[in-house]
Amino acid sequence: MTKLDSKIPQGPIADKWTNHKNNIKLVNPANKRLIDVIVVGTGLAGGSAAATLAELGYNVKAFCYQDSPRRAHSIAAQGGINAAKNYQGDGDSTYRLFYDTVKGGDYRSREANVYRLAEVSANIIDQCVAQGVPFARDYGGLLDNRSFGGVQVSRTFYAKGQTGQQLLLGCYSAMSRQIGKGKIKMYNRHEMLDLVIVNGKARGIIARNLVTGEVERHSAHAVVIASGGYGNVFFLSTNAMGSNVSAGWKVHKKGAFFANPCYTQIHPTCIPQHGDQQSKLTLMSESLRNDGRIWVPKKKEDAEAVRAGKLDPTNIAEEDRDYYLERRYPSFGNLVPRDVASRAAKERCDAGYGVGTNETGEAVYLDFSSAIMRYGQEEANVKGYHNASQTQIRELGEKVVEKKYGNLFQMYEKITADNPYKTPMKIYPAVHYTMGGVWVDYNLMTTIPGCYAIGEANFSDHGANRLGASALMQGLADGYFVLPYTIGDYLADDIRTGEISTDLPEFDEAEKAVKDRIDFFMNNKGSKSVDYFHKRLGKVMWNKVGMARNAQGLNEAIAEIKQIREEFWKDVKVPGSAEGINQELEKAGRVADFLELGELFARDALEREESCGGHFREEHSTEEGEAMRDDANYTYVSAWEYKGEPSDAVVHKEPLVYENIELKTRSYK
């Protein structure tokens, strides 16, 4: 049986990464060109890894199901990227970023990985500036920073509200250079459908050309999974509709452990759901919480009048507004971590103070009126308008806010038809990011030799809750500054291996399994669409495995997901042909994987009898509704081994040892 070996280096935490790099094996430049590496996914993690590995001399085969790496879901990230550069002189440091990340993850992340992330974060900014990423700058021309939830410093670098897009374009430019040189062979519109293992090592993948329908074999000396997270198991999420778990789930079924599947992030600032036919949710950047104040009416009758359309929020007096985050968490206010802000919004709405249009009133206000007037007064002072009217001050303030958040405000108005400069935004929590993922060691290798997982596809850096602006940081840290070192330690033994043949029986077997599954979907005489089953799964996940969980609901969810899965295999209908473009066929394979993951997800949540971060068990909470961890029994990573049915999966426990940070109850008050 596979044993967990995290391969964490010995020594002081500040020296671990440096000493590790000094002692791992290397591949010399002349030998790198003899080695092939497959990278699945070309978002920030996969794209940066592919570009860097190719720059080092490896032959890279990069795969994405989009028509271009520029369409990866990383492009949707809005608010910024963290780095411990202390440009603001407000007390930030590598240790502070490390501490905030571990605390933000509710003490359920691996210390060594998080410290390394904080350590290399500063290098990322220099790399991206060199690529031409247009980060925001202050009046003196220096890079600007803003704050995000869960911290008391400003360490988030940003490019207006489109940071992910700008970072991805920088990453793509680095990839394009290597594509032009022939060091990266780019396979657009290809989807990985299985991992090929030869003599116990990952040696290739089976992929489907999504344009022609052809099933292809691709070999390499190592395979890197950089395919993102699995938030779409809930159907409605902030993820792109194409985001899926399949690449990670395929390697799991071939022997890679899947860690902490129940750790899912609910983001507090999303545009509320508006109907049953909606296919995804839209995120409003957490950066808006820098200047927006979150509130609901203090009086239930005011909330009811708002929901009925009889009362405009701008007519609710200041003394009749409950700025509940500022009230409950005075030290952090509106910048508490995402899990805390999300649960607080749910509590207010469940109590009858929500302002949404649906029966439950699922929405709260994110109000910029105070910031607009504050900025407007500052601008009036700067311009010498000492007797400026309130109207003039508001106009000046709106221009300042537009410079900072203009594209986000524009997006909100296009979707909701409300002008957020004049009336408060409505927001509500939604599924966003997944902290769980494929288990990896310190080198980012899974339990399958030669198979790596990076970025959101792995579990390693965020614990039970991710701080805002840390996703981009982890993706680029893994791709630019960690994997290119650690993969050489493994590949140093492959310099005499030669090209891996795709004529091996292991490729025959994997290709046959893929084709058999495609044939099943095309020939099954069912009556229900793929989306029918995906939506049913999503409702079970949201209602019983969502923001709040309890033993009864989780047991019901496990039984219901199992039932949905049985019905899916009997009654799913996939129209069209396997030869050519068929998005229903693509979705069928992905939803089949979600139906297995969903059950394991619920089982993991059931077995973790504590509340931590985004995993909130109602049985384990304080009288004030805060999470109660059980450090004596659950300070470990749950790493699940595939054994067939999700109910047969075996859990392995990696103990989490804290030598540099004291375990204590999180408080943001």
Automatic annotation (TrEMBL):
GO terms for molecular function: electron transfer activity; flavin adenine dinucleotide binding; succinate dehydrogenase (quinone) activity. The keyword Transport applies. It is an enzyme of class 1 (oxidoreductase). It is a peripheral membrane protein. Residues 534-668 form the Fumarate reductase/succinate dehydrogenase flavoprotein-like C-terminal domain. The active site is at residue 338. Keywords: Cell membrane, Electron transport, FAD, Flavoprotein, Membrane, Oxidoreductase, Transport. GO terms for cellular component: plasma membrane. It catalyses: a quinone + succinate = fumarate + a quinol. Its EC number is 1.3.5.1. InterPro entries: FAD-dep_OxRdtase_2_FAD-bd (IPR003953), FAD/NAD-bd_sf (IPR036188), Fum_R/Succ_DH_flav-like_C_sf (IPR037099), Fum_Rdtase/Succ_DH_flav-like_C (IPR015939), SdhA/FrdA/AprA (IPR030664), Succ_DH/Fum_Rdt_flav_su (IPR011280), Succ_DH/fumarate_Rdtase_cat_sf (IPR027477). GO terms for biological process: anaerobic respiration. It is found in: Cell membrane. Its cofactor is FAD. Residues 36-472 form the FAD-dependent oxidoreductase 2 FAD-binding domain. Belongs to the FAD-dependent oxidoreductase 2 family. FRD/SDH subfamily. This is succinate dehydrogenase. The gene is sdhA.
